[in-house]
């Protein structure tokens, strides 16, 4: 395809100036005589514009170049004495200069520079497409960690925050936004000029946690030095969750094996007492053995239910239930097990309790887990002569929530235990605990759109406070607002 050149001379005398130089070139030359109206379109490949001799018009041309530089490639033709004004045109967006008197080789060089510039621009556009269409997050950052450029995917998921340090873009916790991330691969690359890799937990513009695998590499210039670093990150959140799940699975198998082994040992002891009672015709031994086996059976049942709740995501089986009857049923289920240990167990249920939407099966399990935790805390406390567990139930002041409180006078918890108590596989009971019960309880509460608070001090007992929306519509809205497993402690 022929090259298109637009020629705008300053006067009629220079109209034929370019024709003789371009007659043997594959060029379409469009000439606009002085005084004619400006072209309505600037679609030529090159616009060669002659610098006016009048300084006022020359200044006007400089301003015109600024406004047109984004639309066309402007080349300024002028006399050597006009060099300063021509260079100002270059500053405003002109791409090249030509000086009179013209020589054939200068036109040839101009065309070669144009074709090289077009080739470079096409290569730059190609690289830009790679940059923006990459399935990874890509940023270009200075040695001060400030972001200078981002690709389209980064822009979509993290927002455009050019000029800010990367740690202020990736993180949403004010306490960690004032300094680079720990083990930052970017800082390492800045220090030693080598590529580095790291896994990092970041926060996207929606507030979601994203696990990223991050690579950093220096961007060298022609002199062999670098002032910028490229950071390429890929989202491994799903892979990380699967890896974490497998890790949890292995830990769970190990933990449950110890727990089941202990329960079976206890059952062997109960069976031995029963067998011994049969041989000796001792009713006391038989009853003691039976109670031991019954207790172990209940613990095995609870353990299996916790495993099923953890291992399988199931749809919620919603039903509208009378809150008073539901809480009373849970209370009556646990009362014999608690009172047989010599522990006082009382309930305070408000007569105004109304209906609420609940998955009765798993919510019942969650409350029993909390009551069993209270029972264990009281039994582990040998410093008090007597212990007491209370179960409260009432509606919130605005009538939108059911408030449930479980209090005990047991051993209580320190700050570290409170912080970790709802973490999977964490247990303060040693080998007698699986670390599943309270984790499952927290998950069930949040599946109901609820909130759980814990107040406890060593030796002072513990209070669990639950707030559960009564209506299913409110439950769905609150579940979307709260992240899985968020727990408030005091």
UniProtKB/TrEMBL annotation:
Please tell me whether the keyword Phosphoprotein is annotated for this protein: yes
PROSITE patterns, alphabetically?
Answer: HIS_KIN, PAC
Domain named PAC: which ranges?
Answer: 196-248
Gene Ontology MF, one: phosphorelay sensor kinase activity
Keywords of the record:
ATP-binding, Kinase, Nucleotide-binding, Phosphoprotein, Transferase, Two-component regulatory system
Which leading EC class covers this enzyme?
Answer: transferase
Ranges for domain Histidine kinase come to: 255-472
Q: Which Pfam families does this UniProt record tie to the protein?
A: HATPase_c, PAS_9
Query: What protein does this entry describe?
Result: histidine kinase
Reported EC number(s) for this entry are 2.7.13.3
> Where does this protein come from, organism-wise?
Desulfobotulus mexicanus
């Amino acid at each position: 395809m022929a090259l298109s050149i637009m020629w705008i001379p300053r006067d009629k005398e220079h109209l034929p100036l370019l024709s003789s130089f371009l007659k043997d070139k594959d060029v379409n030359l469009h000439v606009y005589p002085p005084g004619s109206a400006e072209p309505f379109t600037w679609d030529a490949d090159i616009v060669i514009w002659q610098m006016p001799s009048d300084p006022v018009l020359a200044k006007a041309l400089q301003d015109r170049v600024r406004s047109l530089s984004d639309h066309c490639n402007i080349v300024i033709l002028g006399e050597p004495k006009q060099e300063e004004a021509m260079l100002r045109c270059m500053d405003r967006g002109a791409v090249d200069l030509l000086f009179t008197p013209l020589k054939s080789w200068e036109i040839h060089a101009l065309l070669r520079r144009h074709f090289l510039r077009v080739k470079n621009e096409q290569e730059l556009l190609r690289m830009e497409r790679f940059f923006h269409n990459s399935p990874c997050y890509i940023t270009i950052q200075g040695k001060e960690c400030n972001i200078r450029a981002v690709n389209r995917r980064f822009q979509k998921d993290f927002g455009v925050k050019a000029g800010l340090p990367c740690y202020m873009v990736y993180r949403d916790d004010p306490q960690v936004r004032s300094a680079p991330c720990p083990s930052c691969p970017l800082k390492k690359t800045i220090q030693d000029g080598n590529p580095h890799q790291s896994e990092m937990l970041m926060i996207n513009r929606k507030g979601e946690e994203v696990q990223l695998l991050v690579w950093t590499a220096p961007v060298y210039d022609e002199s062999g030095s670098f002032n910028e670093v490229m950071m390429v990150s890929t989202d491994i959140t799903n892979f990380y969750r699967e890896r974490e799940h497998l890790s949890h699975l292995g830990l769970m198998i190990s933990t449950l094996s110890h727990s089941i082994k202990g329960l079976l040992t206890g059952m062997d002891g109960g069976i031995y007492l029963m067998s011994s009672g049969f041989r000796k015709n001792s009713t006391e031994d038989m009853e003691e053995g039976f109670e031991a086996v019954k207790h172990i059976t209940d613990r095995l049942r609870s353990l299996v239910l916790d495993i099923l709740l953890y291992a399988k995501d199931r749809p919620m089986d919603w039903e509208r239930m009378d809150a008073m009857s539901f809480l009373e049923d849970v209370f009556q289920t646990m009362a014999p097990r608690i009172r047989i240990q010599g522990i006082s167990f009382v309930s305070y249920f408000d007569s105004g309790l109304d209906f609420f939407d609940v998955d009765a099966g798993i919510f019942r399990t969650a409350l029993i887990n909390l009551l069993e935790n209270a029972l264990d805390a009281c039994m582990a406390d040998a410093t008090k002569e007597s212990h007491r567990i209370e179960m409260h139930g009432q509606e919130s002041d605005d009538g939108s929530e059911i408030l449930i409180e479980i209090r005990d006078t047991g051993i209580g918890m320190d700050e570290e235990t409170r912080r970790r108590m709802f973490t999977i596989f964490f247990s303060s009971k040693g080998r007698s605990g699986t670390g599943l019960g309270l984790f499952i309880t927290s998950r069930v509460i949040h599946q109901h759109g609820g909130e759980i608070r814990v107040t406890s001090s060593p030796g002072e007992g513990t209070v669990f406070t639950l707030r559960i929306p009564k209506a299913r519509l409110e439950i769905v809205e609150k579940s979307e607002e709260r992240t899985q497993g968020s727990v408030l402690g005091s």
